[in-house]
Amino acid sequence: MSDQDGIDPLISPGQAVALLRDKGLNVDARTLRRWATSGRIPARKIPSGQFRYRRSDVLVIADDLTGAA
Predict the structure, then answer these.
(1) Residue ranges of the Helix-turn-helix domain (predicted)?
(2) What are the pLDDT digits (tens) for 19-46?
């Protein structure tokens, strides 16, 4: 998925985990799923039952957890 024309792509749990790890956070897919279920991070459930996350939402939670502005 690309970020063309200002579209905020949905990313897989693996991509979200990689993005969080790039920010120095050791978070796994199970943690993301718990956060999504509890409402801590917005997520969409696709027909297979897997979650997808908006890239911008993952970046926001990364900033919240690292104290970045």
Answers:
(1) 25-59
(2) 999 999 999 999 999 999 999 999 999 9
